Amino acid sequence: MKKNICILGATGSIGTQALDVLRKEKEDFSLIGISANNNWEAIINIIKEFEPKFAVLMNKNACDKVKDYCNDNDLNTEILQGMDGLIAISKLPEVDIVLTSVVGMIGLKPTLSAIKSGKDIALANKETLVVGGEIIKREALKNKVNIIPVDSEHGAIFQCLRGNNDKTVSKILLTASGGPFRGKNANELKNVTVKDALNHPKWSMGKKISIDSATLMNKGLEVIEAHFLFDVDYDNIQTVIHKESIIHSMVEYIDGSVIAQLATTDMKLPIQYALNYPMRKESVIDKLDFYSINKLTFEKPDIDTFKPLKLAYSAGKIGGTMPTVLNAANEAAVALFLKQHISFLKIGNILEECMIKFDVKYKYEIEDLIFLDDKVKKFVNDNYKL
Asked: Does residue 378 fall inside a structural domain?
């Protein structure tokens, strides 16, 4: 029986790779809904190939272009716009699983809507759990839905935990490639360019995630996400620099056993696993050749130089709305860096300043988090934009 799938963020890195998985497993999936920000040309190509019932674009001009194309070519896909459209396709009755691969806070509302509608979630939007982890976990439990991680690291942990008692977990070992600046000190990072920071040695990702990987903020967000996904204390989540990116993460058990998940560096594997869970299907990636692996190395992260990782642990332990402050400050700071308004190292300083400035609250709803997100971003833009 086919699974009906909705992809939020169908034109991004995760979304396009998810479409590759669907192409190879046409008999297993029907694509019902898709979304994009403003990449109308890519959306049109997806509509022509997969014929989804619904497509959403956030940008009005892009939305109008897709509407006109569908009308002119007698295509039956209904075109929606904006957040209302995202929420609408996330809770369609016929949808079984929603892949949330949009970047940023925009993923929070539609993911929550999908959960409340009883949809399983293939989660590739870190901010959903970083910002709204307590609410998301509560609603997932209440509505009896699965949240299956799509990140390579969390997907690895998810697999390493299968068949084992969660109470026997000693700690999670979250691996990180180290990004393009692994081993460099603060002095060497003073004058790095946007191009330098986007040049990831292992993964092909979008601009925002690539910068987060360079600052190690991506790993910090994953630490908070892991806390909520796997109910593990922050003191029991250890970040390990593993430049080869072959071991995607590990779980240590109380008897000292460590179970690791290994695979080639290809996001299609965790995407395929999440969409087919609990089944495994024929490989969509190149398999490892162990004779060609000379060594696997592990290092301790430099959390003083790469301050965002240290701040993420701190924000997670503080809890409440502090991860929202951290995430909002980071989104704004990364956007400023990409526009060359601030230096690379200034990103971490801005995060720290915002965590000091904004008070933490422990009673809140989704709307409170969205208001705080806007407030923090406005503060960063007002004070640091050239």
From this structure: no
d(CA 16, CA 14): 6
Distance CA 72, CA 95 (A): 28
**95, 24: one domain:** yes
Say if residue 200's pLDDT is above 90. no
Residue type, 200: H
Whether residues 185 and 310 share a domain: the answer is: yes
**Averaged pLDDT for residues 310-335:** 97
CB–CB of 264/286 below 8 Å?
yes
In this predicted model, what pLDDT tens digit does every residue of 295-311 receive, in sequence order? Answer: 999 999 999 999 999 99
Angstrom distance (rounded) from CA 120 to CA 123:
9
pLDDT higher than 90, residue 165: yes
DSSP code for 5: E
User: 3 - beta bridge partners?
Assistant: 29
Threshold 0.90, pTM exceeds: yes
| Interval 116-131 mean pLDDT | 95
Contact 329, 383 (CB under 8 A): no
Q: Which residue range(s) make up the domain with 311?
A: 154-318
Number of domains in the chain: 2
